[in-house]
């Protein structure tokens, strides 16, 4: 995970991959949890050529992600990042 922006929306940016898999085929979901609720966020893909260069692997070009949830939807709860899930269909 690269960072979390905490404005009107909670925005989570980062990258994730499964070794030797084409990142363009993967789906990434983020789970946030509180004492009362779980929130599963779908992500938008982001090009991450820097990740590909670092690992010397062009399969990782689409390993970046961004997700958000409006703070109004998280009704004054303490939430934590529970997981980042990668799915290869």
Protein model, in words:
With 89 residues, the chain is mainly β. It has one helix at residues 49-55, and strands at 3-6, 9-15, 27-33, 38-42, 44-46, 64-70, 80-87. The strands form two sheets. Strands 1-2-6-5 form a four-stranded antiparallel β-sheet, with no helix packed on it. It has a three-stranded antiparallel β-sheet with strand order 4-3-7, with no helix packed on it. The radius of gyration is 14 Å and the shape is elongated. The model has no long low-confidence stretch (mean pLDDT 86).
Summarize the structure.
This protein is mainly β. It is 8% helix and 46% strand. The longest helix has 7 residues, at 49-55.
- List SSEs in N-to-C order: EEEEEHEE
Coarse structural class: mainly beta
Low-pLDDT ranges: none
In this structure, how is the largest beta sheet organized? 4 strands, antiparallel
**CATH fold assignment:** Immunoglobulin-like
Oligomeric status: single chain
Helix content: under 10%
Strand arrangement within the widest β-sheet reads 1-2-6-5
Note the gap between the termini: 22 Å
What would the average pLDDT be, to the nearest integer? 86
Q: Tally the structural domains.
A: 1
Rough outline:
elongated
Beta-strand share of residues: over 45%
Number of helices: 1
Q: What would CATH call the architecture?
A: Sandwich
CATH class call: Mainly Beta
Question: How many individual β-strands?
Answer: 7
Our Rg estimate from Cα atoms comes to 14 Å
């Amino acid at each position: 995970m690269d960072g979390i922006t905490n404005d009107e929306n909670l925005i989570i940016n980062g990258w994730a991959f499964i070794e030797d898999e084409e990142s363009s085929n993967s789906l990434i979901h983020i789970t946030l949890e509180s004492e009362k609720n779980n929130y599963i966020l779908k992500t938008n893909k982001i090009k991450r050529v820097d990740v590909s260069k670092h690992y010397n692997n062009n399969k990782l070009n689409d390993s970046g992600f961004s997700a958000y949830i409006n703070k109004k939807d998280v009704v004054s709860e303490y939430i934590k990042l529970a997981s980042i899930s990668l799915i290869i269909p």
